[in-house]
# Entry
Amino acid sequence: MTDTPWTGDACSLVEAFRRGERSPVEELEATYTAIDASPTNSVCFTDREAALAAATDADVGLPFGGVPIGVKELDNVTGWPATHASAAFADDIASYTDTKIARLEAAGAVLAAQTTASEFGGVNQTFTKIHGATRNPWNLERTPGGSSGGSAAGVAEGLFSIATAGDGGGSIRIPGGFCGLVGLKSTFGRIPRGPHCGPGNLTVTPGCVSRSVRDTARWFDVSNGFDFHDPITLPAVHGWEAGLGSHTEALRGLRAAVVPEFAGAVVATETIELVVEAAEWLIEAAGLVRTEADFVVPRSGAMWSASGGVGLWNTVMDRWPECADDLTGLMRSGVEATIAGFDATAAVRSERARVEVNEGMATLFETTDLLMCATNPDVAFGAESHLPSEFGGKPASPINNGALTIPSNIYGNPAISIPIGFSHDGLPVGLQILAPHFAEQLLLDLALEVEAERPWPLTVPTPN
# Structure
């Protein structure tokens, strides 16, 4: 009998199923036992009867056959709560399943739990009126980040080996960095967002948070590709997992710039030191050539927030103003600011700012092939505190929290967060690497190099 969930990666769990060392039903039962005892508040709903039926009938020959997964609260599963992580939508139930989730089910995944998210995915702290604070398993007083905070906390804690995530301004990479996980934001359009999903401000990219590089590669193998319900998705690319480690020569000689405080971000000194050390090591290990890139990517947080406010208004408009008191303060103020100030002039200014960011990113990739920087400006902040305005003793606007990640959402290029170690107080730190469009497999091979030579703990160690 399996008493605790698998502490390895999802791929090795499938292998254990195939060898008969564990069974999907036993694994699911262990997952639920762990969820019930968890202090992180990372799970907000379970459909145990349906999950048990799926585990009982699991085909372990499939890529994720029998693997219990966490599903982010902002993703849709028929019959599950469709709350947008907001008390204003507490009673809503999904009438359809997202294409990306259906593809995972077809690959054998067992939908074990719905994981908490920040309200409407709007901030990088998972603390809502409907569920309260989700906590980082590395330190329960700290946040796992957001918006995929519950997914990251659950995977790092050891509840399930992999979980869905989405990245509209850093919401895969930020919690990945805070929780010591792999977090790849792919090229915009890799994984479909439909059905029933408008384009919004063209920044959101679905994906996962995982314990290993191969788990992320397998995830994209089964999830990516065009879907009629999302007409701006890209054609399928195959062989992500099979191709791992095969790009050594393609990487050798590529130009890499190390810019810890990318895009005007204010970054804590300790984070800078850890990122620079890891980046310099990886440049040598992978045979890259360090270069100085001549580019300027302007700060983009304010523009991102303003354009994202339109999508927020689209979500709540039919319930406004009756729902106002149900929203968190940041989301309510965002709605009110959009109503009051996002007119035609603001829309034009937003588009002009987007062009400036895009031009800066284009110049970056014309002058270098890869950019290495911090994932987050500092280690994880308080689980229930306000968004920080100080980073390692350096003052900055709360918008600084996403300054390092947002440019890749606007431009649409891939970027990955890789665990590289810990701060002096034992909190994970991530190295972020940016690459041009369609270069995800190069990023995965760089992450594979780090994983092989500087392995990270797959879950938070259990005290002796």
